[in-house]
Write a structure and sequence with these properties.
heterodimer, A: about 625 residues, mainly alpha, 25 helices, about 5% strand, B: about 100 residues, Helix Hairpins, 3 helices, about 80% helix, about 0% strand
């Protein structure tokens, strides 16, 4: 039907406007109906759109809303484009999004900014759908910036706390760095392809008329944009700080949807990257390094949300590894499964924090399994899923990634696979560490906190159950094969198919090893692990300090920049040149005024004399020159 | 020396006399009178040139200037009277404080 996609995009926008303008006055009942009802409605529309798409056998549905601008022979249209890739993304965004909206009712209960919160969350959904459904890079970019804005607003949601407001700013500014690359990449693509519509860009690049150098440069520039949004090295520093926002926000924006926008961008423009092997290699290297380094940091973090944040960065690294070796469908597959189990983990963490009245330090938790059984059960399933235990969701997608890391004919390499496998082991280790320290063992809670431990309301636990169920079954959809007509899988280098089976067995062994290691190291409140770290104190310091990347940026970028701002822009530019010139003008006016003021003495005779002099001077001048 | 030149010389002398008077005298009313003298000097030259060139517009202009001069004096003399009433002197120097 016509207008279906427009309706899908506009529903959350309506929610934003209604909640933003009227929510405060009409009370929480209204906010709940609008703020949660409309996302569910949007999910319904997304399902309907998907059915329509499948009825047409996956032929893309294009819906032009209006022509934005006509410049010369180019016209820029706001058009929505639904193919299987964007349909999967739209379903994830609206589905997980709607569930998290429902969860937020319980989590945000009684907050002063309740209506504002739902307004922002709906705004985020609107921009995310714009990003996912936009046909043109321009529309995607509007959505891209919009989700950044929503992310900024929600990270700093409790803006009275200066640290939280600062975290929001950090996220926004770090993303600006990436966006600069994105914009440059867009200009380059437009210059050579002559269009910003992504299906046409892919066609233009696939036709082979565009030089490899251009494809590489465009690919790298767009990837810089993706590193900003998807928190890859070197722009990953904002995501851990973004945990300052409310936990459902971390689940929705900073785990399930927004941060995967970079993965979506690269998969969407796979036509460009297929022509640019160098850019693809860079993506694979950055991806696997990010995955590995973030996983090592996650091993020693003590804040429950920070562990999950680094885990998200690490999993995003896995997705980029898949993109880099040309397995675009597999990356989207991992994105899909990750959305469920990471949302379940974050919401479970939110439920724990809720139960403990705001406590986030896992050193002061433990023994919660029996106190909050629903949270524990769902958290355990999601943990097993991310660790890659069969037959849960993460097992299928992560195994495919590792398989293509070595077997892909487009850049697969042994070291990518080795580092990826090591990361998979670390993933299992740090996730089960979290499970053990939070839910098992003896309680290390403060007595006051312990007395008030309570299971979360049913609006929260039901969402956890749904997400945990999807963490189990999401891997059973053969998403890479479903997307194959759009995103072809790379050729496999090995002739003998048995290698894949060996790889699967190896991956399961790694996950089990991680489980066993965590069970052994973190029994008893983690004392064996502490003793082990005693021996590697320096390594522990580096990991706990997150490789001191923030400190490095502070020294290498912020301080010189601040110096330049202070000396050049403030003291030289602002104070000396701008203020100075204005002050100089004012001083000149005052000085000349003082000089001329002497002329106005009040003496009538003096005036008469001056008239006389003036007259004589004029006469002389007239005689001589006229 | 023709009549016209004689009249122009008289006009110049009248103007100079008026100017010297304005500059030298320290009595407001007398200064105003000298101002009128200057004006008359100028007007005399205007009349001479009107006759020489046969331009009727000059005559009309002369009358306009007379009217303006009359209006000016009609305003200036009351101002001087008000000043004298306030300051009890005709010396313009003692009113120097009135400058802006």
């Amino acid at each position: 039907m016509d207008g279906m996609l427009t309706l899908l995009v506009l529903l959350p926008l309506a929610g934003f406007l209604l909640n933003g303008l009227l929510g405060r006055r009409l009370g929480t009942g209204f906010v709940n109906v609008v703020g949660v009802g409309l996302p569910f409605l949007a999910f319904g529309v997304a399902l309907w759109a998907w059915r329509t798409l499948e009825a047409g056998d996956g032929a893309p549905i294009v819906e032009t809303v209006f022509t934005w601008a006509v410049v010369g022979e180019y016209s820029f249209e706001v058009a929505f484009y639904l193919d299987r890739l964007s349909a999967v993304m739209a379903l994830i965004v609206t589905g997980v999004g709607a569930l998290i909206h429902l969860y937020s009712i319980g989590y945000m209960k009684g907050d002063e900014g309740y209506a504002r919160y739902f307004a922002y969350l709906n705004l985020f959904l609107f921009f995310m759908l714009l990003l996912v459904l936009g046909r043109s890079l321009l529309v995607l970019f509007v959505g891209w910036e919009g989700v950044g804005l929503a992310s900024y607003l929600l990270i700093g949601f409790w803006f009275q706390d200066a640290a939280k407001a600062r975290a929001g700013r950090k996220a926004f500014i770090t993303n600006r760095v990436g966006d600069a690359g994105f914009l440059l990449g867009m200009f380059l693509v437009f210059t050579f392809a002559g269009t910003l519509e992504m299906d046409r860009i892919n066609e233009a690049f696939a036709a082979g008329l565009i030089p490899v150098g251009v494809a590489t440069a465009a690919g790298i520039l767009l990837f810089i944009g993706a590193t900003g949004k998807s928190a890859q090295i070197p722009l990953h520093v904002w995501l851990p700080d973004a945990m300052a926002g409310p936990t459902p926000v971390s689940a929705l924006i900073h785990a399930a949807t927004m941060v995967t926008a970079g993965v979506y961008l690269v998969a969407r423009l796979s036509g460009v990257y297929l022509e640019a092997p160098a850019a693809s290699t860079l993506i694979a290297v950055i991806g696997v390094l990010t995955a590995f380094l973030a996983a090592t940091i996650a091993l020693v973090q003590t804040d429950i949300k920070k562990v999950l944040a680094y885990s998200t960065i690490s999993q995003l690294g896995f997705m980029f590894l898949a993109l880099g070796v040309g397995a675009y469908g597999v990356a989207v597959f991992h994105l899909f499964t990750h959305a469920f189990f990471k949302a379940a983990l974050f919401l479970g963490a939110g439920s724990v924090i809720h139960a403990l009245n705001g406590e986030q330090d896992i050193r002061r938790m433990g023994g919660l399994a029996r106190r909050i059984p629903w949270t524990f059960g769902t958290f355990a399933i999601a943990t097993a899923a991310i660790a890659g235990l069969p037959p849960l969701a993460g097992f299928f997608s992560k195994d495919e990634i590792l398989w293509f890391a070595i077997a892909s004919g487009e850049g697969g390499a042994l070291w990518l696979w080795a580092l990826g496998s090591l990361t998979a082991l670390l993933t299992a280790l740090y996730m089960f560490r979290l499970l053990w320290l939070v839910f098992l063992g003896h309680s290390r809670m403060e007595p006051e906190t312990e007395r008030h431990v309570h299971e979360s309301p049913v609006t929260m636990t039901s969402v956890l159950v749904v997400l945990a169920a999807f963490s189990v079954i999401a891997g059973w959809f053969a998403l890479p094969q479903y997307l194959e007509p759009l995103l072809a899988l790379p050729e496999v280098r090995f002739a003998w198919g048995g290698w894949h089976l060996l790889q699967v067995i190896f991956a399961v062994l790694l996950a089990l090893l991680g489980l066993a290691g965590a069970a052994w190291l973190y029994r008893d409140g983690g004392r064996p692990a502490d003793e082990l770290w005693q021996r590697f104190r320096r390594l522990h310091r580096v990991l706990a300090g997150k490789y001191f990347v923030d400190e490095f940026y502070d020294r290498a970028l912020q301080r010189p920049w601040r110096w330049v701002s202070d000396r050049v822009f403030l003291r030289l530019g602002d104070r000396l040149l701008i203020d100075g010139s204005l002050h100089g003008l004012a001083a000149l006016a005052r000085w000349s005024a003082a000089a001329f003021a002497r002329v106005q003495s009040g003496s009538l005779h003096w005036y008469a004399w001056m008239t006389l002099f003036g007259l004589v001077a004029v006469l002389i001048w007239v005689w001589r020159y006229v | 020396m023709s009549d016209a030149n004689l009249l122009l010389a008289v006009s110049g002398m009248l103007f100079a006399l008026g100017l010297v008077g304005v500059v030298v005298r320290r009595n407001l009313l007398v200064m105003l009178m000298f101002l009128e003298l200057m004006l008359n000097g100028v007007l005399l030259s205007l009349a001479v040139f009107t006759q020489l060139l046969g331009a009727e517009a000059g005559a009309v202009l002369m009358f306009l200037v007379f009217v303006v001069a009359a209006a000016e004096i009609a305003i200036a003399v009351p101002i001087v009277l008000l000043l004298v009433r306030a300051g009890r002197t005709l010396d313009p120097g003692s009113y120097a404080g009135l400058k802006g």
